[in-house]
Amino acid sequence: MVGTFDIAINKIAKSRVEEYDVNNVPFGKCFSDHMLVAEYKDGKWAPPQIIPYGDMPLSYAMSALHYGQAIFEGMKAYKNAAGVVSLFRPHENFKRLNRSALRMAMPEVPEEIFIGGLIELMRLDSAWVPTSETGSLYIRPFLIATDEAIGVRASDTYKFVIITCPAGNYYNEPIKVLVEQDYFRAVKGGVGFVKAAGNYGRSLFPTRMAQAKGYQQVIWTDSETHQYVEESGTMNLMFVIDNTVITPALSDTILSGITRDSVLTLARAWNLKVEERKISITEILEAHKNGTLQEAFGCGTAATIAQITSIGYKDADYTLPAVETRQFSTKVDAYLRQIRKGQVEDTFKWMISV
Ligand SMILES: Cc1ncc(COP(=O)(O)O)c(C=O)c1O
Prior knowledge:
Blueprint: E1 8-9, E2 34-41, E3 44-45, E4 49-52, H1 63-67, E5 70-72, E6 75-79, E7 85-88, H2 90-103, H3 111-124, E8 136-145, E9 158-167, E10 175-179, H4 197-201, H5 204-212, E11 217-221, E12 229-232, E13 235-241, E14 244-247, H6 258-269, E15 273-276, H7 281-289, E16 293-300, E17 304-313, E18 316-319, H8 327-340, E19 351-353
Parallel strand pairs: 1-4, 10-11, 10-17, 14-15
Antiparallel strand pairs: 2-3, 2-4, 2-9, 5-8, 6-7, 6-8, 7-19, 8-9, 11-12, 12-13, 13-14, 13-16, 16-17, 17-18
Bound molecules: pyridoxal-5'-phosphate.
């Protein structure tokens, strides 16, 4: 029983986990035994079910496919040395999913389904959580509109699903980034602050163009002037300039990253000066020129910390200080790993064990 919902569990006849080395599978292609599915219709949620991972029968007229009512989350579970599985700040993902739902005119998912269902799912599939030092189980909750209907309007029916897949180290190689000057990710009054599927579809072409020029990611800038940095790929951006940690202030064009919040919380706890404000590319290049730009990195669930080694702007590349000299981000990276693996005290109560 999950709160007021009975959760029906239909267990797989034989686990597939033995077929894989979960510490070494390619990311995003191998899915754990079970998934959680909950359906919304007639204005209410039906009790969630946990069933074997499999395909979804869908109509070619399904409204998510045509009108983009599709939102998702990305989060991780970790296993400590004693084999205990814990989730990192799952209530933040739960709240963010519901902020996305509101903006996309979709129904909010009850906590008993998201958190209660996720905990049940993790208990069932704990064998899929990697034990390696940097391994984790990536969790993908998503909500999609399922009306079989053509016509632009909010759907009456929805499916909330959670699938999971083992993850090793996911692009936390140092990256070269290009400051985007033609395209933008988000616009004032738009949906950049939520995890709407369309935000990601629209980013692929500019990213492909940057990759063709030898960069791994773009730095998204504001849509009006292309002067102020916003995010990089699917990460929030952080800079350390003259011993101050600076990150773009949250707005409706920036996703409120849970890693971002964790990094800022640690910076403040360690008595560093923190500024959440607009930051222009001119300011960054000026700091690079006068030697005060100490660190630049992206942060997000996938990579935790992705060090930026060089920034491309217009026709020049600016090389940043060596990663080994970056005290703040390397300390944050190590500390977050230790918290997640239960190797240091969880002072902030970020881990929820299942
Ligand atoms: C656009 C965007 N920005 C930032 C982030 C980082 O957010 P979080 O730290 O919650 O993973 C993500 C990933 O979810 C993202 O997709």
